[in-house]
Amino acid sequence: MAEIPLILVANDDGVEALGNKLLREALRPLGDVYTVAPRREQSTNSHALTLHKPLRLTKMEDRVFAVDGTPADCTYVALFHSDLLPRTPDIVVSGINRGPNLGNDIHYSGTVAAAREAAFRGIPSVAFSALTEDNLPQCVELATDIVARLLDVSIGDGPAPLLNVNFPAGEIAGIRVTRLGRRAYQDMISVRTDPRGSDYMWIGGPGPKPHEQIDGSDTEAVDEGWASVTPLDLDATHGDHFGIAAWVAGERDAETDDADDNTDDNTDDGKNEEKSG
């Protein structure tokens, strides 16, 4: 890379979050670091963009800005605001999130969405999350090393890499390359009554429950004290279900061999498609 790398940092815990502050400071030796992050916590906002109200940008300090919007808003504003960044970032780094983003968490995660928004634009991106803040110094050290290595990767004409990294609690044994696991939650709705007699609800339940054990998964790695690095794909097409799609579209008659999409070989996949959180 001929010029000094430009690194954009975002998150979903907010611009004042400890994990974000420590990470952006640690990344400074690697390049020119700019931070554009939510003004307040925006956890579980997924990939929402704010289209029905104006956004406000606040300069917190030199090269640190806050947006009163979602994590994806922050990346979008950073990339397309004409007076914010001097050029397109070489990499976008999101986190370090307070709490994990494992398995199907990625679909709800604002941390991952901030990175994904950049990957949509062809920019290499990585999202960092930590099970706890008790070992943040080691998490930051490993995250900085991962960013440095990703900056050295030659992307070529292929899609930009989008990596999801999770750090376990306690002493980190090392780093594993993983696939997504599956997280399960104690799903529930708590219905309550306000002082005026109207019902309101809290959703989400008290937290996760024991998850399925999947070899080579991010959940397995973190359970065993390892950091996980999972490459994510922007193409959400489910290739195994083209037969089902063709049947419901009326493109072909139901045939015995169409059942290949749902044979015993794929029994586990069918179970895994059930909503878990």
Write the layout of secondary structure elements.
Layout: E1 6-10, H1 18-26, E2 32-38, E3 57-61, E4 64-67, H2 71-80, E5 91-98, H3 110-120, E6 125-130, H4 136-151, E7 162-167, E8 175-177, E9 184-185, E10 189-193, E11 199-203, E12 208-209, H5 218-223, E13 227-231, H6 242-248, H7 267-272
Parallel strand pairs: 1-2, 1-5, 2-4, 5-6, 6-7, 8-13
Antiparallel strand pairs: 3-4, 7-13, 9-12, 10-11
Helix pairs in contact: 1-4, 2-3
Short recap of the structure:
With 277 residues, this protein is of the alpha/beta class.
The fourth-level CATH homologous superfamily of the largest domain is Survival protein SurE-like phosphatase/nucleotidase
In what order do the strands lie side by side in the largest sheet? 3-4-2-1-5-6-7-13-8
Got a strand count? 13
Q: How would you classify the helix and strand content by structural class?
A: alpha/beta
- Helix and strand sequence: EHEEEHEHEHEEEEEEHEHH
Description:
The chain is an alpha/beta fold and 277 residues long. It has seven helices and 13 strands. It folds into two domains: 6-179 and 213-231, Survival protein SurE-like phosphatase/nucleotidase (Stationary-phase Survival Protein Sure Homolog, Chain: A, 3-Layer(aba) Sandwich), CATH 3.40.1210.10; 240-272, no CATH class. It has helices spanning 18-26, 71-80, 110-120, 136-151, 218-223, 242-248, 267-272; strands at 6-10, 32-38, 57-61, 64-67, 91-98, 125-130, 162-167, 175-177, 184-185, 189-193, 199-203, 208-209, 227-231. The protein has a nine-stranded mixed sheet, sandwiched between helices. A two-stranded antiparallel sheet has the order 9-12. Helix 1 (18-26) packs across helix 4 (136-151) and helix 2 packs parallel to helix 3. The radius of gyration is 21 Å and the shape is globular. 34% of the residues are buried. Mean pLDDT is 90; it is low at 267-277.
